[in-house]
Amino acid sequence: MSINAPAHQPSPEGTRLGELWSILPEQSGCDEAGVLTVGGVSVAELAEKYGTPLHVIDETGLRRQARSFAEGLKERWPNSEVLYASKSLPIVEMYRVAQQEGLAIDVAGGGELRMALAAGVDPRLLHFHGNAKTDAELAHALEVGIGVIIVDNEDELDRLEQLLTRPQRLLLRVIPGVDAVTHASQATGGDRSKFGLPMDQALRAIDRMQAHPLMDFEGVHLHIGSQILGTSQFAEAVEKLATAGRFKTYDVGGGLGVKYTYDDDAPTVEAYLDAIVAAAKEHLPADAKLMIEPGRSVVARAGITLYRVVSVKHTGDVFVAVDGGMADMLDVALTDQRFEAVLANRLAEPWEETVQLVGRQCESGDLLVDGAPMPAARPGDLVAIATTGAYSYTLANNYNGALKPAIVFVADGEARLVVRRESYEDLLALHAPAIG
Ligand SMILES: Cc1ncc(COP(=O)(O)O)c(C=O)c1O
Description:
Homodimer. This protein is α/β, with parallel strands linked by helices.
C-alpha cells in the first residue's frame, strides 16, 4: 500500500462498517484482501508478528488529537496549559509523544512519575495528583524537581511542611459539588467525592499555604469525572471553581467523553474548549492561567485491541471467545462501557450474526461485547475492538495468569513495538521460589 494514499474506507452492504470508520482510529482502512489496516499496516501482519492480544495505536491520529487540544486551548485562552492525564495510557512512549506535542503531564503516583522521567519529560512539566500520596512519593517528587503538586488534603500539607526545603508550586483540589452524568465509578466531583476538600475546608488549607514561606500556592483544581458526553457540566465546574477566590491558576481537570458506540454522540474537542473558555471568560480573572487535563479523549480513539478467535459455540447464544478478555479489557466489567467490534480479517463480508463476544477469564462478566454484529466467525479469525486506547492497558491485570499485552505504534506503513508482551518469566519473577 502506498503510504501517503488516503486509506480505503468502504461501506459494504449488510454491514455497519461505514459508521465504524468514525469510531476506529483516524488512520484506518481496508486493504484489497478485506483486512483492517491501521496506519497503513495490515492488522493480520501485526497479529502474525507481535501476537495477540495486541494494542495497536495510530500514532498519527494520536499526535493530531494531542495537538488539537494544545493549539485549540492556546488560541482561545493564550495563558493556558494542557496536561495529558497519563493514567489513561501510562507508557513511556506516550509520555514522550505528549511532551513532543506540547502537552504538560499529570502523574498520579510514583510509577507514573518514574515512567515520565524515563521518557525524558522535563520534571517542571509534571503535575503530581493523588488523594493519598505517600511520604516516599512526595519526597521523590520534590527531589526530582516536580513542577506542581496538586494538594488533596491537610495531612498532605503536614507532610509537605516536614519535607519542603525550597519553594514549591502548589494547587489545591476542591470538591465542586457537581454530580457529573456518567458511570458512578467515574464521577468525582459530587459532594461525597473522596478527592479534594469541600470549599470551607479548602479556604482554610489555602490560608495555610499562603502563610507558609516555602509554599508557592498558585490556585485551585477540580476534576468532575470521566466519559462526560455533554459540555454544560464542564461550564458549571468552571463557575464553581471561581467561587474559591481569585488566584493565578485554575485547573478544570479532564473528563471529555469519547464516541465508543454507534449511538454515542460525543462533543468535539472544539465544542468542549468553546464551552470551558466561554465559562472562563465569564467567571475567571482575565489574566489567570487556565489548565485542562484530558486523558481518555486524547488517546481512546487512536487505539484498537486485536484478538484471535479461539472458539465459536452455538448454545442458544452464539459465543465467540477470543484469546484475551477482562484481564486486558476491564472497562466493560468495571464501568459497563459498551465497545464495538469487527471481524478484522473479513471486513467486506456481510454481518449476518449477532454474537456474545467473550473473553477467556473465569467470570460470566467477562463479556467484551454484548451483541456484536459480524460475519459467522471461525477460530483463527481476528477481532478488533475499537476505541481501546484509554484505560485498557492501564487496568490490565494477571487474572487467570494472563500476560499483559504488547503495544505497537503504527504510522506511515511502519509498526514499532513500544511495550513488549509480558512473559511467563516476568510473571514468575515476583514470586519466591517454592522450595521443599
Ligand atoms: C485528576 C484527574 N485529571 C484528569 C483525569 C482524566 O480524565 P479523562 O481521562 O476522563 O479525561 C482524571 C481521570 O480520572 C483525573 O483523576
